[in-house]
Write a structure and sequence with these properties.
three-stranded mixed beta sheet, binds NADP nicotinamide-adenine-dinucleotide phosphate, 9 strands, N-(1-d-carboxylethyl)-l-norvaline Dehydrogenase, domain 2, globular, alpha/beta, six-stranded parallel beta sheet, Rossmann fold, 12 helices
C-alpha cells in the first residue's frame, strides 16, 4: 500500500488528485482549506479527508500540493500546521504550485534539515490538461526523490521531466510563462482584428490553427475569447503572480522581458476592473469589451 496525501483541491488540484486516487494500491488523504471542497472530492473519489496539512502528513510517504503563491506553500509545508512536522523521515513532498525558485530552494533546505525530500514540480497544460490527466510537468530536486515520485506523477500527466537541482522546475515554468504572455496578447489582438472586420471566427480559427499561427491558446481558448466567456481556466491574478516572479528572477541574469512586463501591466488593469479570477484570455477585453 502507498500512503499519500494531497493538499489543495482547486481548479488544478481537484482533478489531479482524482487521477492519483486511481494509482494501484494507494491510500489517499486529501486536505483543502475550505473543507466543503474536500468533502465534495471525497464524495466523487472516496479516500480520506484531513482537517490540516499537519494531519494529512501523518504516515504519508508522499505529500502533493497545488496551492497558490510562495507564502501559501510555506504555510502548508513548515507553517504551524504544516505537513513537514508530521511526515515520516525519508518521505517526499511534491509541490505543483507555481512559485519562485527562491522559495523552492528555501523549502528544499528545510526539508533536508527535517530528513525529508522536496521536489518543485510546476505544471503546464491548464485546467483542460488537469481534467484530462494530460499535464506536462517540470521537476527540480534530488534525482533519487524524483525517481520515487515519477510513477505517481504520471497518473495525471503526459510528460514529466527532471530538469536539475531544486529550483530548476520553477525556472523552467518561468520560461513557459514568458512564452505564454506574448502569445495571449498577440491572440487577443488577432481575434479583435478579425471581429472588427466581421470575419467568421470559427472559420478563421479553423484555417489559421492549421498553419504557422497555431497555439494551445488558440485551439483551447480562441472561440471563448470571441464569445467573451472567461469563467474558467488560469486566473489573471495567478498569471500576474507568475510574471512578477519571472521579472524578479530575470534581474539576476539581466535578461530583458519587455513584452512580459507590458502584459503584466495589462493584467493589472484587468484585476482593477474586477477580472482577477477570469481566465487570462480576458486580455482581449482591453481591446473591446
Ligand atoms: P485555485 O483554483 O485558486 O486553487 C488554489 C487552491 O489552493 C485551493 O484549494 C485553495 O484553498 C488552496 N490554498 C491557497 N492558499 C492556501 C493556503 N495558504 N493554505 C491552504 N490552502 C491554500 O488555483 P489553481 O488554478 O488550482 O492554481 C493552483 C496553483 O497552480 C497556482 O500556483 C497556479 O499558479 C498554478 N497553475 C494553475 C494553472 C491553471 O490553469 N489554473 C495552470 C498551471 C499552474 P481554498 O479552496 O480554501 O481557497
Amino acid at each position: 500500500m502507498t500512503k499519500a496525501s494531497w493538499l489543495g483541491l482547486g481548479v488544478m488540484g481537484h482533478p489531479m488528485a482524482g487521477y492519483l486516487s486511481k494509482f494501484p494500491a494507494i491510500d489517499l488523504t486529501v486536505y483543502n482549506r475550505t473543507t466543503s471542497k474536500a468533502e465534495g472530492w471525497q464524495n466523487e473519489y472516496g479516500g480520506n479527508t484531513a482537517l490540516t496539512p499537519l494531519d494529512a502528513g501523518n504516515d504519508a510517504q508522499f505529500v502533493f500540493s497545488c496551492v497558490g503563491n510562495d507564502d501559501d506553500l510555506r504555510q502548508v509545508t513548515f507553517g504551524e500546521h504544516g505537513a513537514f512536522h508530521s511526515m515520516p523521515k525519508g518521505a517526499v513532498f511534491i509541490d505543483h504550485s507555481t512559485t519562485s525558485a527562491t522559495v523552492a530552494r528555501e523549502i528544499s533546505a528545510k526539508a533536508s534539515e527535517m530528513g525529508l525530500h522536496f521536489l518543485d514540480a510546476p505544471v503546464t497544460g491548464g485546467q483542460k490538461g488537469a481534467e484530462n490527466g494530460q499535464l506536462s510537468i517540470m521537476v527540480g530536486g534530488e534525482p533519487s526523490a524524483y525517481e520515487k515520485a515519477e510513477p505517481l506523477i504520471l497518473t495525471y500527466s503526459k510528460a514529466v521531466k527532471h530538469m536539475g537541482p531544486s529550483g530548476a522546475g520553477q525556472q523552467t515554468k518561468m520560461v513557459n510563462q514568458i512564452a505564454i504572455a506574448g502569445v495571449v496578447q498577440g491572440l487577443s489582438e488577432a481575434i479583435n482584428f478579425a471581429q472588427s472586420n466581421n470575419l467568421n471566427i470559427p472559420d478563421v480559427l479553423s484555417v489559421i490553427s492549421k498553419g504557422a499561427a497555431q497555439s494551445w491558446q488558440m485551439e483551447n481558448s480562441g472561440q471563448h475569447m470571441a464569445d467573451r466567456f472567461f469563467d474558467f481556466g488560469f486566473a489573471v491574478d495567478w498569471m500576474r503572480k507568475d510574471l512578477n516572479i519571472c521579472i524578479e528572477e530575470a534581474k539576476a541574469t539581466n535578461s530583458p522581458l519587455p513584452v512580459a512586463t507590458l502584459v503584466e501591466s495589462y493584467l493589472g488593469e484587468l484585476h482593477d476592473n474586477g477580472r482577477g479570477r477570469n481566465d487570462i484570455t480576458s486580455l482581449v477585453t482591453r481591446l473591446k469589451d
